[in-house]
Design goal:
With 97 residues, the protein is of the alpha+beta class. It has 3 helices and 4 strands, in the order αβαβαββ. The longest helix has 14 residues, at 30-43.
Length: 97
């Protein structure tokens, strides 16, 4: 689990990122979770946008993606979900203690 200090640090890094995935009418599916897992391995920190036409609640979407990809939910701001997962091969982000 991330500490409050680590979450604040990740939020500051995520501020300049653009969402690279969108969850729409179809909701969350296995293929999307797989792609998000791969993106997290490459980038460690990503944003996912929840579109207006999504049938699921954004908190449920965030939980489902985080659980499916073994990622930490950093924050939900508006319709954007910020996720973090430490990369096994390309570690770039050093978290404060």
């Amino acid at each position: 689990m991330l500490t409050g200090k680590q979450k604040r640090y990740l939020r500051s890094l995520a501020h300049h990122l653009d969402p690279i995935f969108q969850v729409g009418k179809g909701g969350v599916n296995e293929n999307m979770v797989k792609q998000i897992r791969e993106a997290l391995e490459a980038r460690e920190l990503i944003k996912v946008s929840v579109l207006q036409n999504c049938d699921m609640d954004k908190k449920n979407v965030a939980q489902e993606i985080a659980n499916g990809s073994n990622a930490e939910l950093v924050q939900i701001i508006g319709n954007v979900i910020v996720l973090y997962k430490e990369s096994e091969e390309r570690k770039q982000i050093v978290l404060p203690n």
